[in-house]
Write a structure and sequence with these properties.
The complex is a heterotrimer of chains A (about 210), B (about 325) and C (about 700). Chain A is mostly helical and about 210 residues long. Chain A contains six helices and no strands. Chain A has a single domain, classed as Four Helix Bundle (Hemerythrin (Met), subunit A) (Up-down Bundle), CATH 1.20.120.80. In chain A, helix 3 packs antiparallel against helix 4. The longest helix of chain A is centred in the last third of the chain and has 34 residues. The N terminus of chain A is likely disordered. Chain B is of the alpha+beta class and about 325 residues long. Chain B is built from eight helices and twelve strands. The longest helix of chain B is centred in the first third of the chain and has 34 residues. In chain B, about 45% of the residues are buried. Chain B folds into two domains: about 110 residues, no CATH class; about 170 residues, Cupredoxins -  blue copper proteins (Immunoglobulin-like), CATH 2.60.40.420. Chain C is built from 19 helices and two strands. A two-stranded antiparallel ribbon of chain C has the order 1-2. The radius of gyration of chain C is 26 Å and the shape is globular. The C terminus of chain C is likely disordered. The chains are: A mainly alpha (about 210), B alpha+beta (about 325), C mainly alpha (about 700). Chains in contact: A-B, A-C, B-C. Chains B and C meet through helix 2, helix 3 and strand 7 of B and helix 4, helix 8, helix 10, helix 11 and helix 12 of C.
């Protein structure tokens, strides 16, 4: 296996420079980069879930997970966040059809459902704080607050992004930039939903056992 | 045992590059002068490892140097500008490292069990020590001192370790503040001493003498002065020493220990003796650390000026 | 406040009141401060008096050109390396002075001149700077500089993100430099040992500086990794298949896969420690359910891959330099690629070998020991491959080759000691000893050697003239003398039982070797001088050493030698078509070395932007505010960052088109200059020349109609 092609080369006909403008796969490049970013974000949660495995029983004489974690509390937020993903998906269907108002309406609905999710989390954690189950009490509580709030921070940033996109689409329509941004936000919004499902399973359901 | 097969003079193989320096007294090479079976086993595996690797590394170095001198452009040696692949050589370049790593992996596995701090088979499987009653010592590190508690003898010594020769010594170790690392180079390798946790270590000294022990993990401002003498003495001397400590020492209960654990830089290398040690002190220390009841904050500028009044209050 | 802080705090100035308690009478810090003030003033006056502010702003501060960003990355790395070296000088002299109980002490130290308070900061800063702010930027700089040209691309996939990555790294470096004068730095080692870094044991702002500067720098590196990987996947020239990718590009890919996946774990480890310090959680405390070894695990899950993140590109340098000066293709290309990928893969499974002495069970230790040894297989393969590359070659030894050979031997010794450390039975003796220090400096020096080799090797491509060979050789041999005098005694001290991070040396038998190490640092100091002279002499004689051919060495092999020297800002007037693994060597063999295409096309280029600079400035202020717990300022700057990003998203004027006719004009001017038809003294060419700056006086001549 030589590093060089053995086929004879005719210096007069060989194509040395690429004279055809292939164009730049703009949207594909941007989406690929976002997938790569998602991979590093996934590593953040991988590390946090590994930490959860370590701290899950470190109650240090304070509240146990059965006293703190109630899967029933997390069911409504789950419904909200998954519906938000679904409405975002409907927006993507509208994008395919080039339906501007359809996208904007779907994004607004999706945004409101996300806000609802955050409000419900806010209520849950205010209750925990009121009963004294604050992160300073034990390794387990530190971990529980951190992992759930890390996800909530993702939701918050997703919502800011969504709000910007509502304005962007309304103002600029479907230009190349907005299309790739909508596609990336779709990846991000699905990603945070996947994370939430994992949190619901490993933190809430397993924690209640 | 198997390790006897390799002549001991080979241990100095690892020294060869160092001998080039000349004038170095081998007596100061603690790692090459083990005084107990654990450190000796460590050294044995080092020698085995270096010898096996030399089988491939020495020829590689010679080959590389030969290539560099043989194929310089001025030598007009055979030039093969197309040569970039050879199945035979590929098998060689992958095969040799795989075989070497395979052999080393075996010795690594064996060695890890031989000197495992929790159950070093060089001691526990050694018939020589089967009948000897082991000595138990509980080690507690503070900021920045050592406390050695002899629970069976009900005595404790700060910053000095005295052990009888030819007797297995079992340590349980914990810390009151941050992680330290228990290390006596000529007797036993390192093991972490962690707050709120208990680690273990075992050693046997085969020669009487005085050995250096110290913390090998950074633990803050007083870390450099955190060392202790290890005296390996005969059985009779050890018993006499225990009696002496029992006479001299003051009582050590938990409140007194908590006072001792205040941040203190042991500049002067002071040794303290305690007798009538409260039973279960070691466990109580771990429990209090875990509950956050035994914890001293380090003053912010403590070691900035070692002539300051504040530093003098925290050193001896 | 959520946690008990030592010292004052108020809502407006945070903990800045602490500064009143800091002692500014220390002559060392004062001297360093004066050096920075004088150096900074000199640089600023030079820029002002030569009227270069506009030039600086247009050409460098707001650029998105991957070559200029690469140069700036390397520059930042070199400056921080100098800072790290000064730290090393202080460590070596302190240890040589503070031997034995009778040694005197000055400046508040019981022995020597650095009390633990300062000494601990010095070695912490040295380690953290050398790895994260010297080695990483220099290597990322080379990836930026060379890799896009090597794959025949015009720029990176995301030029704007590229600039952001650089300026975030600069922000991190600035934060560390601020720590030198405003407050203190971490005292707890570059690994940030918990619980020593917890608030009770590190009550100052030092650890906070450490945490935020690494956090900022690692965000920059992650952004860079996304960019580099996407560039390799998406921006290759036609015909540049995976099997023809230059080996340096392969190593860039391997190491950035590592960076992309490992830096987030570091981010989590540091973030959890930050929570412990700022709101009093119990992740890594000894009490209330904390687990301090969890930090060590998370840190080294990043830390070990990071080691390979920096070493794999160095292997890439060697794989480019050695074939060039052997006049032969690289032996075993496929093997080389597999070996790089294997190292990247295995790097994830070995982290526990950094703390074998934790007391894990022998089963666990054996597993990690054997996994670690597996790294030796692909590494050994690489050594053999380089040796067989030289075999039957036609070897020449200009300075890049000297550095490469030096690097090869350092790899052999470092690899051997690494294999020793991989065995727990040996590791128990030498863990935390200076043997380990000697081992990993050996490995890092391999990178430094390779990087210096790469600097000399690619210098003519970037700047259009070669570096002086005589002073280059003086630099090499002085540096090598330094390496031998510092690290042979250091290995020896390891066998004598000396452990690391000692401010005071209790055993006088170590003194002679410590003095030898000081002599070694003297050689390093002289070598730096030789390097500066080399640069000075080369720049002074640049017309004599001018390179006009596209291939500066005459025997180079990959695509970056297929464009003009120095490359124009658009790299290739027309994208090349790739036919072979070593495309340039292939074209040379077939006599196809004409660089002029038959016709020209419009070129689409990104526009300069100041947004990355602005975002990074806010990040720096935000980091400073968080260190000193000035909450309002942190919140304000954080909001400013978000707003800047949103405003940027509405900016549609981000790129432009260069018409074909103008490209042709620039290309002809470059060729005319190369053929000497334009005198060398004339102002810089329109199209290129980093030595005279890429004069991209490009105003957008045509709006891009992309939407």
């Amino acid at each position: 296996m030589s590093s060089h092609d053995n086929a004879p080369v005719d210096p007069n006909t060989v194509e040395l420079w690429d004279y055809e403008d292939h164009g730049h796969d703009f949207i594909g490049t941007r989406t690929l980069g976002f997938w790569l970013y998602m991979m590093s974000d996934a590593m953040i949660f991988a590390a946090l879930f590994a930490a959860h495995g370590v701290y899950v029983r470190n109650f240090a004489g304070s509240f146990t997970s059965q006293e703190v974690v109630h899967p029933m509390n997390a069911i409504w937020p789950t419904v909200f966040i998954l519906s938000s993903v679904m409405t975002y998906g409907l927006g993507m269907v509208a994008l395919k059809k080039g339906n501007k108002s359809g996208v904007v309406n779907a994004l607004i609905l999706s945004f409101l459902l996300g806000v609802g999710f955050l409000l419900m989390e806010w209520r849950e954690f205010s209750e925990l704080a009121a009963m004294g189950a604050i992160p300073q009490m034990s390794g387990f509580l530190s971990d529980f607050w951190t992992i759930v709030i890390a996800h909530a921070a993702h939701v918050l940033f997703g919502l800011i992004w969504m709000a910007v996109m509502i304005v962007q689409v309304a103002v600029n329509g479907f230009d190349q930039n907005n299309v790739y941004r909508l596609l990336n936000l779709k990846i991000f919004w699905h990603f945070q939903a996947v994370i939430w499902v994992s949190i619901f399973t490993f933190v809430y359901l397993f924690g209640a056992i | 045992m198997k390790r006897k097969k390799i002549p001991m003079f080979l241990r100095f193989f690892a020294l060869i590059p160092l001998l080039l320096l000349g004038g170095c007294n081998t007596e100061h090479f603690w790692l090459f002068n083990p005084k107990g079976p654990v450190a000796a086993a460590n050294l044995y595996y080092m020698v085995v490892d270096v010898v096996i690797m030399s089988i491939v590394i020495v020829p590689t170095v010679i080959f590389t140097i030969w290539v560099i001198s043989r194929y310089r452009a001025s030598k007009k040696a055979h030039h093969d500008p197309k040569f970039s692949h050879s199945n035979g050589l590929e098998v060689l370049v992958w095969g040799i490292p795989i075989i070497i790593v395979g052999v080393l992996a075996f010795f690594s596995y064996e060695g890890t069990h031989a000197v495992n701090p929790w159950n070093p088979t060089v001691i526990t499987k050694n018939p020589k020590y089967a009948d000897t009653k082991p000595l138990e010592v509980d080690v507690v590190t503070t900021d920045w001192q050592w406390m050695f508690i002899y629970p069976k003898q009900h005595i404790a010594v700060a910053n000095e370790l005295v052990i009888p020769v030819h007797t297995p010594v079992h340590f349980r170790l914990t810390s009151t503040s941050v992680t330290n690392n228990f290390y006596i180079p000529q007797l036993v390798g390192q093991v972490y001493v962690m707050p709120g946790m208990r680690s273990k270590q075992s050693l046997v000294a085969t020669h009487t003498g005085e050995y250096h022990g110290f913390s090998a993990a950074l633990s803050g401002g007083g870390f450099s002065w955190m060392d202790f003498k290890t005296k390996a003495v005969s059985e009779a001397d050890f018993n006499a020493w225990v009696e002496k400590v029992k006479q001299q020492g003051r009582r050590l209960a938990y409140p007194k220990f908590a006072a001792f654990a205040k941040p203190t830089v042991n500049l002067a290398g002071k040794v303290h003796y305690f007798s009538d040690v409260q039973p279960g002190l070691f466990a109580e220390v771990i429990k209090n650390v875990r509950d956050g009841k035994l914890q001293y904050a380090t003053p912010m500028f403590l070691t900035e000026n070692m002539d300051s009044k504040e530093f003098k209050q925290h050193s001896n | 406040m959520l946690v008990d802080l030592q010292g004052p705090w108020n809502p407006i100035f945070g903990r800045l009141g602490l500064l009143l308690e800091v002692h500014y009478n220390n002559p060392i810090i004062f001297f360093a401060f004066m050096m920075v003030v004088i150096g900074g003033t000199a640089a600023l006056s030079w820029v002002t008096f030569t009227g270069r502010w506009g030039w600086l702003w247009r050409e460098w501060l707001t650029t998105v050109d991957h070559k200029k960003l690469g140069i700036m990355y390397i520059l930042v790395g070199l400056v921080m390396m100098l800072r790290g070296f000064v730290d090393a000088l202080m460590m070596r002299t302190q240890q040589a002075m503070a031997v034995g109980p009778d040694s005197p002490g000055v400046l508040g130290a019981a022995h020597g001149y650095l009390p633990p308070y300062h000494f601990d900061q010095v070695f912490t800063a040295h380690g953290m700077i050398m790895i994260l702010l010297a080695a990483t930027p220099i290597l990322v700089g080379f990836m930026n500089l060379i890799m896009p040209i090597q794959i025949g691309a015009r720029d990176m996939a995301y030029p704007y993100l590229n600039a952001l990555g650089l300026w975030l790294t600069v922000a991190a470096a600035s934060l560390v430099m601020i720590a030198l004068f405003v407050g203190d730095f971490s005292h707890a080692g570059w690994v940030g040992l918990t619980p020593l870094t917890e608030l009770p044991y590190s009550p100052g702002v030092g650890v906070d500086y450490y945490l935020w500067s690494i956090q900022i720098g690692s965000i920059g590196t992650t952004i860079g990794a996304v960019n580099l990987i996407a560039t390799i996947i998406k921006m290759r020239a036609p015909g540049m298949t995976w099997g023809r990718l230059p080996i340096f590009t392969w190593t860039t890919l391997a190491s950035n896969i590592i960076a992309l996946t490992s830096f987030p774990v570091l981010g989590v480890a540091l973030a959890l420690l930050t929570l412990d310090r700022y709101i009093g959680t119990h992740f890594f405390t000894a009490d209330l359910g904390g687990n301090l070894m969890m930090y060590t695990n998370l840190f080294w899950i990043w830390g070990h891959p990071e080691v390979y993140f920096v070493v794999i590109p160095a292997f890439g340098f060697l794989s480019e330099i050695i074939p060039t000066f052997s006049e032969k293709p690289l032996f075993g290309y496929v093997t080389m690629v597999l070996a790089s990928m294997a190292i990247a893969g295995v790097s994830w499974t070995v982290w526990l070998h950094h703390f074998f002495t934790m007391g894990a069970s022998p089963g666990v230790n054996s597993y990690f020991s054997i996994a670690t040894m597996l790294v030796g297989i692909p590494t050994g393969v690489k050594v053999f491959n380089w040796a067989f590359t030289m075999w039957r070659g036609k070897l020449r030894f200009p300075t890049p080759m000297l550095w490469a050979i030096g690097s090869l031997f350092l790899l052999i010794t470092g690899g051997m000691t690494g294999m020793m450390l991989a065995v727990p039975a040996i590791n128990y003796l030498v863990h935390n000893s200076v043997f380990v220090i000697a081992h990993f400096h050996n490995m890092f020096l391999l990178i430094v050697y390779a990087a210096f080799g790469a600097t000399v090797y690619w210098w003519p491509k970037v700047f259009g003239f070669k570096l002086d060979e005589y002073w280059g050789k003086v630099f090499f041999w002085l540096f090598t003398a330094g390496t031998l005098f510092v690290f042979v005694p250091m290995y020896t001290l390891g066998f004598m039982g000396m452990t690391r991070r000692l401010d005071y040396i209790p055993h006088t038998s170590w003194e002679p070797l410590l003095l030898l190490e000081v002599i070694g640092t003297g050689f390093y100091l002289l070598s730096i001088l030789a390097f500066v002279i080399q640069l000075g002499v080369s720049i002074y004689n640049r017309e004599k050493n001018r390179v006009v051919a596209s291939d500066a060495w005459g025997t180079s092999r990959s695509v970056e030698w297929m464009t003009h020297t120095p490359p124009p800002f658009y790299n290739f007037a027309v994208t090349p078509v790739i036919h072979a693994r070593d495309e340039w060597a292939w074209r040379r063999e077939h006599g196809l070395t004409n660089l002029m295409p038959e016709k020209f096309l419009d070129i689409h280029m990104p526009k300069n932007t100041a947004v990355p600079l602005i975002i990074s400035f806010f990040t720096l202020v935000c980091g400073f505010a968080l260190v000193w717990r000035i909450w309002w300022l942190a919140a304000a700057t954080f909001a400013a960052i978000i707003i800047a990003m949103i405003i940027r998203s509405f900016d549609k004027d981000t790129d432009y088109i260069i018409p074909a006719a103008e490209v042709e004009r620039m290309e002809k001017e470059i060729v005319a200059r190369a053929e000497g038809r334009i005198p060398a003294g004339e102002p810089a060419p329109v199209g290129g020349g980093a030595g005279g700056a890429y004069a991209s006086k490009r105003t957008p001549t045509q709006r891009r109609d992309n939407d």
